[in-house]
Design brief:
Strand content: 5-15%
Number of helices: 11
Helix content: 40-55%
Radius of gyration: 19 Å
Largest sheet: 6 strands, mixed
Number of strands: 6
Strand order of the largest sheet: 3-2-1-4-5-6
Length: 264
Amino acid sequence: MTTEVYGEVLKKARNAAGLSQTALGDLLSCSESLVGLIERGKRRPSKKFTLAAEAILGLNGELFGLLPNTTVMSTPKWFSEWPKVEERAHTIRTWQPLVVPGLLQTARYARAMLSVAPRASEQWVEEAVETRLRRQSVFEREDPPMYWALLDECVLLRPVGGKDVMREQLVHLLKMAERPNISFQIVPLEVGATAGVLGGFALAQGCDMQDHVYLEDAVQGAVSAREEMVRGVNVIYDAIHKWAHPMHVSQRLVREVAAKYEDQ
């Protein structure tokens, strides 16, 4: 990381948010001089400063991606293979019945989700948020994967982190969908039971690898390239997809729900 580049990105985001160095420092519980030193590339930013600044400035990994790579201990061994699969994939499809997919989460939404884990310490939560944001860098590579997400409507209605966090998250979801490689569709509640109500999953395809599936579980998920498992999950995905709203209807629904959170 060059501290100069980090400082330029921070300054640009601060100005876009209409905040002075003093105002940002107050929100970050640090001095105006520290903000100034970091913006001028004279002080190395910490991970804690970065995550807090991104949450305040509405960023989603732009600053975090400029930090040097660190070993994050919060990734369970059974999950450690999946980010490697994401890196090699040209297509990722996912179904989420309860929450926004990790690759589309904001830092504040992710933090709210991870904070409710039993016995979750502040350090563990921050490391887990870092891991999630780092995974999102797959969308910044030269050949980002096609990403198709199916979301149950209840994902929009569950106020994770409160109304402000949810509105920010839904606006971010719409912004990400402006990219040509990312789309989402909402499965309406009126459908009732679907083939995927018991849990979320993701499917990944790549030119130089076997198809993989990631299955979510309340205790321990699973990553597998077993042909019969991948084939079975593909069938479930297709069965859910037939009930989903078209993309333009899904986006309109998200905008409507986001507006309701703003009015509350």
